[in-house]
Design a protein that fits this description.
mainly alpha
Length: 450
Protein backbone atom coordinates (compact mmCIF):
# COMPACT_ATOMS: atom_id res chain seq x y z
CA UNK A 1 0.00 0.00 0.00
CA UNK A 2 1.42 3.38 -1.01
CA UNK A 3 1.95 5.91 1.75
CA UNK A 4 0.83 9.18 0.24
CA UNK A 5 1.98 11.28 3.19
CA UNK A 6 5.30 11.85 1.44
CA UNK A 7 3.89 12.86 -1.92
CA UNK A 8 4.84 16.51 -2.59
CA UNK A 9 2.25 18.97 -1.38
CA UNK A 10 0.36 20.95 -3.93
CA UNK A 11 1.46 24.42 -4.85
CA UNK A 12 -1.39 25.89 -2.84
CA UNK A 13 -0.46 23.90 0.25
CA UNK A 14 3.19 24.89 0.09
CA UNK A 15 2.60 28.58 -0.38
CA UNK A 16 0.05 28.78 2.40
CA UNK A 17 2.85 28.48 4.94
CA UNK A 18 5.22 30.88 3.25
CA UNK A 19 6.15 34.11 4.96
CA UNK A 20 3.67 36.96 4.49
CA UNK A 21 4.58 40.11 2.66
CA UNK A 22 7.47 41.94 4.31
CA UNK A 23 6.89 45.66 4.40
CA UNK A 24 10.57 46.18 4.98
CA UNK A 25 11.69 44.28 1.93
CA UNK A 26 8.71 44.37 -0.34
CA UNK A 27 8.91 40.62 -0.86
CA UNK A 28 6.39 38.10 0.34
CA UNK A 29 5.42 34.52 -0.02
CA UNK A 30 5.08 35.01 -3.74
CA UNK A 31 8.85 34.82 -4.06
CA UNK A 32 8.98 31.46 -2.39
CA UNK A 33 6.29 30.05 -4.65
CA UNK A 34 7.44 31.66 -7.86
CA UNK A 35 4.44 34.02 -8.14
CA UNK A 36 3.78 37.60 -7.25
CA UNK A 37 7.23 38.81 -8.34
CA UNK A 38 5.71 41.79 -10.10
CA UNK A 39 4.12 43.02 -6.87
CA UNK A 40 7.42 42.51 -5.04
CA UNK A 41 9.34 44.42 -7.75
CA UNK A 42 6.90 47.34 -7.60
CA UNK A 43 7.25 47.57 -3.85
CA UNK A 44 11.01 47.44 -4.08
CA UNK A 45 11.18 50.16 -6.71
CA UNK A 46 9.54 52.48 -4.23
CA UNK A 47 12.41 51.97 -1.78
CA UNK A 48 15.34 51.72 -4.16
CA UNK A 49 16.84 49.41 -6.74
CA UNK A 50 17.22 45.74 -5.90
CA UNK A 51 18.78 42.94 -7.90
CA UNK A 52 16.35 41.10 -10.20
CA UNK A 53 15.40 37.70 -8.86
CA UNK A 54 17.31 35.76 -11.51
CA UNK A 55 20.47 37.77 -10.76
CA UNK A 56 19.96 37.20 -7.03
CA UNK A 57 19.76 33.46 -7.69
CA UNK A 58 23.12 33.55 -9.45
CA UNK A 59 24.62 35.61 -6.62
CA UNK A 60 23.50 33.04 -4.07
CA UNK A 61 24.87 30.20 -6.19
CA UNK A 62 28.18 32.05 -6.53
CA UNK A 63 28.44 32.28 -2.73
CA UNK A 64 28.07 28.51 -2.39
CA UNK A 65 30.72 28.11 -5.10
CA UNK A 66 33.16 30.52 -3.46
CA UNK A 67 32.65 29.06 0.03
CA UNK A 68 33.25 25.52 -1.21
CA UNK A 69 36.17 26.72 -3.33
CA UNK A 70 37.67 28.27 -0.20
CA UNK A 71 37.18 24.98 1.65
CA UNK A 72 39.08 22.99 -1.00
CA UNK A 73 41.73 25.65 -1.73
CA UNK A 74 44.07 24.40 1.06
CA UNK A 75 44.10 20.86 -0.41
CA UNK A 76 47.05 21.38 -2.82
CA UNK A 77 48.75 23.52 -0.18
CA UNK A 78 48.95 20.80 2.47
CA UNK A 79 52.16 19.48 0.94
CA UNK A 80 53.65 22.99 1.10
CA UNK A 81 52.61 23.39 4.74
CA UNK A 82 53.86 19.89 5.57
CA UNK A 83 57.28 20.57 4.05
CA UNK A 84 57.52 23.96 5.76
CA UNK A 85 56.20 23.03 9.19
CA UNK A 86 57.04 19.31 9.31
CA UNK A 87 53.76 17.70 10.36
CA UNK A 88 52.45 14.19 9.59
CA UNK A 89 49.31 12.95 7.76
CA UNK A 90 47.32 12.88 11.02
CA UNK A 91 47.69 16.65 11.21
CA UNK A 92 46.58 17.03 7.59
CA UNK A 93 43.41 15.01 8.10
CA UNK A 94 42.77 16.67 11.47
CA UNK A 95 42.92 20.12 9.89
CA UNK A 96 40.53 18.86 7.24
CA UNK A 97 38.27 17.19 9.81
CA UNK A 98 38.17 20.29 12.05
CA UNK A 99 36.61 22.18 9.17
CA UNK A 100 33.89 19.54 8.77
CA UNK A 101 33.15 19.57 12.51
CA UNK A 102 32.94 23.38 12.47
CA UNK A 103 30.51 23.24 9.54
CA UNK A 104 28.39 20.80 11.53
CA UNK A 105 28.32 23.12 14.53
CA UNK A 106 27.39 26.02 12.26
CA UNK A 107 24.60 24.03 10.67
CA UNK A 108 23.21 22.77 13.97
CA UNK A 109 23.27 26.13 15.73
CA UNK A 110 22.74 28.65 12.93
CA UNK A 111 21.16 26.58 10.17
CA UNK A 112 17.66 27.91 10.92
CA UNK A 113 18.64 31.44 11.90
CA UNK A 114 17.84 32.92 8.50
CA UNK A 115 14.23 31.75 8.84
CA UNK A 116 13.93 34.24 11.73
CA UNK A 117 16.25 37.18 10.99
CA UNK A 118 16.24 37.00 7.19
CA UNK A 119 18.59 35.61 4.57
CA UNK A 120 20.62 38.79 4.00
CA UNK A 121 21.84 39.42 7.58
CA UNK A 122 23.04 35.83 7.91
CA UNK A 123 24.82 35.92 4.54
CA UNK A 124 26.51 39.26 5.19
CA UNK A 125 27.79 38.04 8.56
CA UNK A 126 28.98 34.76 7.04
CA UNK A 127 30.81 36.60 4.24
CA UNK A 128 32.52 38.84 6.80
CA UNK A 129 33.64 35.76 8.77
CA UNK A 130 34.90 34.07 5.60
CA UNK A 131 36.88 37.17 4.74
CA UNK A 132 38.40 37.14 8.23
CA UNK A 133 39.37 33.48 7.85
CA UNK A 134 41.17 34.30 4.58
CA UNK A 135 43.25 36.90 6.44
CA UNK A 136 44.18 34.29 9.06
CA UNK A 137 45.10 31.78 6.33
CA UNK A 138 47.23 34.35 4.50
CA UNK A 139 49.17 35.25 7.65
CA UNK A 140 49.37 31.73 9.16
CA UNK A 141 52.78 30.77 10.50
CA UNK A 142 51.92 27.36 11.94
CA UNK A 143 49.32 24.66 12.46
CA UNK A 144 47.43 26.51 15.27
CA UNK A 145 46.68 29.43 12.94
CA UNK A 146 45.61 26.96 10.27
CA UNK A 147 43.21 25.36 12.76
CA UNK A 148 41.73 28.72 13.75
CA UNK A 149 41.19 29.66 10.11
CA UNK A 150 39.49 26.34 9.36
CA UNK A 151 37.19 26.67 12.38
CA UNK A 152 36.09 30.20 11.45
CA UNK A 153 35.69 29.11 7.84
CA UNK A 154 33.64 26.07 8.82
CA UNK A 155 31.32 27.92 11.20
CA UNK A 156 30.56 30.61 8.64
CA UNK A 157 29.99 28.02 5.92
CA UNK A 158 27.60 26.09 8.15
CA UNK A 159 25.69 29.27 8.99
CA UNK A 160 25.43 30.24 5.33
CA UNK A 161 24.54 26.95 3.62
CA UNK A 162 20.99 26.77 4.95
CA UNK A 163 20.35 30.46 4.20
CA UNK A 164 21.78 30.21 0.68
CA UNK A 165 19.87 27.06 -0.22
CA UNK A 166 16.60 28.27 1.24
CA UNK A 167 17.08 31.66 -0.39
CA UNK A 168 17.50 30.09 -3.81
CA UNK A 169 14.30 28.11 -3.36
CA UNK A 170 12.51 31.24 -2.15
CA UNK A 171 13.32 32.80 -5.51
CA UNK A 172 12.73 29.80 -7.77
CA UNK A 173 12.02 26.44 -6.12
CA UNK A 174 12.76 24.08 -9.07
CA UNK A 175 15.89 25.92 -10.19
CA UNK A 176 16.96 26.41 -6.59
CA UNK A 177 16.77 22.67 -5.90
CA UNK A 178 19.04 21.88 -8.86
CA UNK A 179 21.42 24.75 -8.10
CA UNK A 180 21.75 23.54 -4.50
CA UNK A 181 23.02 20.25 -5.90
CA UNK A 182 25.35 21.53 -8.64
CA UNK A 183 27.03 24.51 -6.92
CA UNK A 184 29.00 22.55 -4.26
CA UNK A 185 30.65 20.41 -6.95
CA UNK A 186 31.62 23.42 -9.02
CA UNK A 187 33.04 25.18 -5.98
CA UNK A 188 35.01 22.21 -4.71
CA UNK A 189 36.46 21.50 -8.16
CA UNK A 190 37.34 25.12 -8.88
CA UNK A 191 39.05 25.69 -5.54
CA UNK A 192 41.23 22.59 -5.81
CA UNK A 193 42.37 23.23 -9.40
CA UNK A 194 42.92 26.99 -9.15
CA UNK A 195 44.83 26.57 -5.90
CA UNK A 196 47.02 23.91 -7.51
CA UNK A 197 47.76 26.20 -10.47
CA UNK A 198 48.66 29.06 -8.16
CA UNK A 199 50.98 26.83 -6.12
CA UNK A 200 52.66 25.53 -9.26
CA UNK A 201 53.10 28.70 -11.27
CA UNK A 202 52.69 31.86 -9.15
CA UNK A 203 54.72 33.33 -6.30
CA UNK A 204 53.68 33.31 -2.65
CA UNK A 205 50.87 30.75 -3.12
CA UNK A 206 50.06 30.52 0.59
CA UNK A 207 49.15 34.20 0.46
CA UNK A 208 47.88 34.78 -3.08
CA UNK A 209 45.17 32.09 -3.05
CA UNK A 210 43.52 33.50 0.04
CA UNK A 211 43.83 37.16 -0.92
CA UNK A 212 42.08 36.38 -4.21
CA UNK A 213 39.22 34.71 -2.34
CA UNK A 214 39.08 37.66 0.06
CA UNK A 215 38.43 39.98 -2.88
CA UNK A 216 35.65 37.69 -4.12
CA UNK A 217 33.93 37.72 -0.72
CA UNK A 218 34.01 41.53 -0.60
CA UNK A 219 32.34 41.74 -4.02
CA UNK A 220 29.71 39.20 -3.02
CA UNK A 221 28.91 41.12 0.16
CA UNK A 222 28.16 44.16 -1.98
CA UNK A 223 25.84 42.09 -4.16
CA UNK A 224 24.01 40.62 -1.14
CA UNK A 225 23.43 44.14 0.18
CA UNK A 226 21.53 44.86 -3.05
CA UNK A 227 19.35 41.74 -2.87
CA UNK A 228 15.72 41.77 -1.78
CA UNK A 229 14.90 39.94 1.44
CA UNK A 230 12.72 36.90 0.80
CA UNK A 231 11.39 36.17 4.28
CA UNK A 232 9.68 38.19 6.98
CA UNK A 233 11.48 38.49 10.29
CA UNK A 234 9.81 36.56 13.07
CA UNK A 235 10.48 35.94 16.78
CA UNK A 236 12.55 33.06 18.06
CA UNK A 237 15.99 33.86 16.63
CA UNK A 238 17.82 33.12 19.90
CA UNK A 239 15.80 29.96 20.50
CA UNK A 240 16.68 28.76 16.99
CA UNK A 241 20.37 28.69 17.96
CA UNK A 242 19.77 25.73 20.28
CA UNK A 243 20.76 22.58 18.38
CA UNK A 244 17.65 20.65 17.45
CA UNK A 245 17.18 17.63 15.24
CA UNK A 246 13.65 18.12 14.01
CA UNK A 247 12.23 16.58 10.89
CA UNK A 248 8.85 17.55 9.45
CA UNK A 249 6.67 14.48 9.15
CA UNK A 250 6.51 14.67 5.35
CA UNK A 251 10.30 14.27 4.94
CA UNK A 252 11.07 11.60 7.54
CA UNK A 253 10.88 8.51 5.36
CA UNK A 254 12.57 10.14 2.35
CA UNK A 255 15.36 11.26 4.70
CA UNK A 256 16.02 7.61 5.62
CA UNK A 257 16.61 6.94 1.92
CA UNK A 258 18.76 10.02 1.34
CA UNK A 259 20.96 10.03 4.46
CA UNK A 260 23.14 6.94 3.70
CA UNK A 261 23.77 8.19 0.15
CA UNK A 262 24.79 11.65 1.35
CA UNK A 263 27.09 10.18 3.99
CA UNK A 264 28.76 7.86 1.47
CA UNK A 265 29.37 10.41 -1.29
CA UNK A 266 30.75 13.04 1.08
CA UNK A 267 32.93 10.46 2.80
CA UNK A 268 34.49 9.89 -0.62
CA UNK A 269 34.92 13.65 -1.06
CA UNK A 270 36.67 13.71 2.31
CA UNK A 271 39.13 11.05 1.15
CA UNK A 272 40.00 12.99 -2.00
CA UNK A 273 40.17 16.30 -0.16
CA UNK A 274 42.63 15.10 2.47
CA UNK A 275 44.58 12.15 1.03
CA UNK A 276 43.80 12.45 -2.71
CA UNK A 277 46.85 14.61 -3.55
CA UNK A 278 49.22 12.17 -1.84
CA UNK A 279 47.63 9.22 -3.66
CA UNK A 280 47.85 10.96 -7.04
CA UNK A 281 51.49 11.90 -6.56
CA UNK A 282 52.44 8.40 -5.38
CA UNK A 283 50.71 6.70 -8.32
CA UNK A 284 52.17 9.07 -10.94
CA UNK A 285 55.57 9.54 -9.34
CA UNK A 286 55.21 13.30 -9.83
CA UNK A 287 55.52 16.06 -7.27
CA UNK A 288 53.30 18.46 -9.25
CA UNK A 289 50.91 20.41 -7.05
CA UNK A 290 48.51 20.75 -9.99
CA UNK A 291 48.37 16.98 -10.22
CA UNK A 292 47.78 16.87 -6.48
CA UNK A 293 44.64 18.99 -6.85
CA UNK A 294 43.56 17.28 -10.06
CA UNK A 295 42.05 14.22 -8.38
CA UNK A 296 39.63 16.34 -6.34
CA UNK A 297 38.94 18.51 -9.40
CA UNK A 298 38.01 15.44 -11.47
CA UNK A 299 35.76 14.04 -8.74
CA UNK A 300 33.92 17.30 -8.05
CA UNK A 301 33.92 18.55 -11.65
CA UNK A 302 32.34 15.38 -13.02
CA UNK A 303 29.88 15.52 -10.12
CA UNK A 304 28.74 18.99 -11.18
CA UNK A 305 28.33 17.92 -14.81
CA UNK A 306 26.34 14.84 -13.82
CA UNK A 307 23.91 17.02 -11.86
CA UNK A 308 23.21 19.08 -14.98
CA UNK A 309 22.91 16.06 -17.27
CA UNK A 310 20.45 14.27 -14.96
CA UNK A 311 18.51 17.31 -13.80
CA UNK A 312 15.36 16.26 -15.69
CA UNK A 313 15.55 12.56 -14.85
CA UNK A 314 13.20 11.02 -12.30
CA UNK A 315 14.52 11.19 -8.74
CA UNK A 316 14.70 7.42 -8.36
CA UNK A 317 16.71 7.19 -11.57
CA UNK A 318 19.13 9.80 -10.28
CA UNK A 319 19.53 7.98 -6.97
CA UNK A 320 20.10 4.60 -8.60
CA UNK A 321 22.59 6.10 -11.04
CA UNK A 322 24.46 7.72 -8.18
CA UNK A 323 24.68 4.63 -6.01
CA UNK A 324 25.69 2.27 -8.83
CA UNK A 325 28.26 4.72 -10.24
CA UNK A 326 29.70 5.25 -6.77
CA UNK A 327 30.15 1.52 -6.21
CA UNK A 328 31.65 0.94 -9.67
CA UNK A 329 33.88 4.01 -9.56
CA UNK A 330 35.33 3.29 -6.13
CA UNK A 331 35.88 -0.37 -7.07
CA UNK A 332 37.81 0.69 -10.20
CA UNK A 333 39.81 3.20 -8.18
CA UNK A 334 40.77 0.57 -5.59
CA UNK A 335 41.83 -1.86 -8.31
CA UNK A 336 43.96 0.88 -9.89
CA UNK A 337 45.63 1.70 -6.57
CA UNK A 338 46.44 -1.98 -6.13
CA UNK A 339 47.87 -2.19 -9.65
CA UNK A 340 49.60 1.23 -9.46
CA UNK A 341 47.71 2.46 -12.52
CA UNK A 342 47.37 6.28 -12.72
CA UNK A 343 45.05 6.04 -15.73
CA UNK A 344 42.71 3.66 -13.96
CA UNK A 345 42.84 5.82 -10.84
CA UNK A 346 41.60 8.92 -12.66
CA UNK A 347 39.06 6.91 -14.69
CA UNK A 348 37.68 5.44 -11.47
CA UNK A 349 37.67 8.92 -9.91
CA UNK A 350 35.62 10.27 -12.82
CA UNK A 351 33.10 7.42 -12.53
CA UNK A 352 32.92 7.94 -8.78
CA UNK A 353 32.32 11.62 -9.56
CA UNK A 354 29.14 10.62 -11.37
CA UNK A 355 28.15 8.83 -8.18
CA UNK A 356 29.04 11.85 -6.07
CA UNK A 357 27.00 14.30 -8.14
CA UNK A 358 24.04 12.03 -8.77
CA UNK A 359 23.91 10.79 -5.19
CA UNK A 360 24.04 14.30 -3.78
CA UNK A 361 21.45 15.60 -6.26
CA UNK A 362 19.23 12.60 -5.66
CA UNK A 363 19.43 13.08 -1.89
CA UNK A 364 18.37 16.71 -2.13
CA UNK A 365 15.62 16.00 -4.66
CA UNK A 366 14.30 13.17 -2.52
CA UNK A 367 13.76 15.45 0.47
CA UNK A 368 13.64 19.15 -0.33
CA UNK A 369 10.53 19.30 -2.58
CA UNK A 370 8.53 17.95 0.36
CA UNK A 371 9.62 20.68 2.78
CA UNK A 372 7.36 23.71 3.11
CA UNK A 373 8.97 27.13 2.53
CA UNK A 374 9.28 27.96 6.23
CA UNK A 375 10.96 24.56 6.82
CA UNK A 376 13.44 24.75 3.92
CA UNK A 377 16.42 26.22 5.77
CA UNK A 378 16.25 23.73 8.66
CA UNK A 379 15.72 20.68 6.47
CA UNK A 380 18.51 21.64 4.07
CA UNK A 381 20.83 22.23 7.01
CA UNK A 382 20.08 18.73 8.29
CA UNK A 383 20.94 17.27 4.88
CA UNK A 384 24.28 19.03 5.07
CA UNK A 385 24.76 17.68 8.60
CA UNK A 386 24.68 14.14 7.22
CA UNK A 387 26.99 15.21 4.41
CA UNK A 388 29.63 16.79 6.63
CA UNK A 389 29.50 13.95 9.14
CA UNK A 390 30.45 11.74 6.23
CA UNK A 391 33.21 14.10 5.19
CA UNK A 392 34.75 14.71 8.61
CA UNK A 393 34.62 11.62 10.80
CA UNK A 394 36.01 8.99 8.37
CA UNK A 395 38.74 11.42 7.26
CA UNK A 396 40.17 11.86 10.75
CA UNK A 397 40.10 8.09 11.27
CA UNK A 398 41.91 7.65 7.95
CA UNK A 399 44.69 10.02 9.04
CA UNK A 400 45.26 7.97 12.18
CA UNK A 401 45.38 4.74 10.16
CA UNK A 402 47.88 6.17 7.66
CA UNK A 403 50.38 6.79 10.46
CA UNK A 404 49.65 3.97 12.90
CA UNK A 405 48.29 1.16 10.73
CA UNK A 406 48.87 0.10 7.15
CA UNK A 407 50.02 3.35 5.54
CA UNK A 408 48.53 5.46 2.75
CA UNK A 409 47.70 2.77 0.20
CA UNK A 410 46.19 0.28 2.66
CA UNK A 411 44.16 3.03 4.34
CA UNK A 412 42.81 4.26 1.01
CA UNK A 413 41.70 0.73 0.12
CA UNK A 414 39.99 0.20 3.49
CA UNK A 415 38.32 3.60 3.20
CA UNK A 416 37.09 2.80 -0.30
CA UNK A 417 35.65 -0.53 0.82
CA UNK A 418 33.77 1.23 3.61
CA UNK A 419 32.27 3.65 1.05
CA UNK A 420 31.17 0.70 -1.10
CA UNK A 421 29.49 -0.96 1.89
CA UNK A 422 27.66 2.29 2.73
CA UNK A 423 26.51 2.64 -0.86
CA UNK A 424 25.28 -0.96 -0.87
CA UNK A 425 23.17 -0.27 2.23
CA UNK A 426 21.77 2.82 0.53
CA UNK A 427 20.90 0.75 -2.52
CA UNK A 428 19.14 -1.81 -0.36
CA UNK A 429 17.12 0.92 1.35
CA UNK A 430 16.13 2.49 -1.97
CA UNK A 431 15.05 -0.82 -3.49
CA UNK A 432 13.12 -1.90 -0.40
CA UNK A 433 11.53 1.52 -0.10
CA UNK A 434 10.33 1.37 -3.67
CA UNK A 435 8.98 -2.17 -3.26
CA UNK A 436 6.97 -1.66 -0.08
CA UNK A 437 5.86 1.90 -0.84
CA UNK A 438 7.48 3.45 2.24
CA UNK A 439 9.50 5.97 0.25
CA UNK A 440 7.70 7.55 -2.67
CA UNK A 441 10.22 9.90 -4.22
CA UNK A 442 9.42 13.25 -5.84
CA UNK A 443 9.23 12.81 -9.59
CA UNK A 444 7.99 9.22 -9.41
CA UNK A 445 4.59 8.43 -10.82
CA UNK A 446 1.83 7.50 -8.40
CA UNK A 447 -1.46 6.38 -9.91
CA UNK A 448 -0.64 8.07 -13.20
CA UNK A 449 0.27 11.42 -11.59
CA UNK A 450 3.76 12.81 -11.06
Amino acid sequence: MTNTSVVPASKTDRTSDAAPADPGSGVGSGVGSGVGSGVGSAALSARGRRLPSNVALYVLASITISFLAASSAPTPLYAVYQAEWGFDPITTTTVFGVYAVAVLLGLLTMGKLSDHVGRRPVLLTALAAQAASMVVFATADGVPALMVARIVQGLSTGAALGAIGAGMMDIDRPRGTITNAVAPGIGTATGALVSGLVVQFLPAPTHLVYLGLLAVFVLQAGAVALMAETVTRKPGALASLAPEIKLPRAVRRPMLVAAPVLFAVWALAGLYGSLGPSLARRLTGSGSEVLGGLSLFVLAGVAAVSVLVLRKAATRTVMLTGILALIAGVALTLASIRDSSPTGFFAGTALAGVGFGSGFQGGIRTVMPLARPHESSGVLSLLFVFSYLGMGVPTVIAGFLVVHAGGLTATAQEYGLAVIVLAAFALLGLVRGGRDGTAVLPGERIGGNA
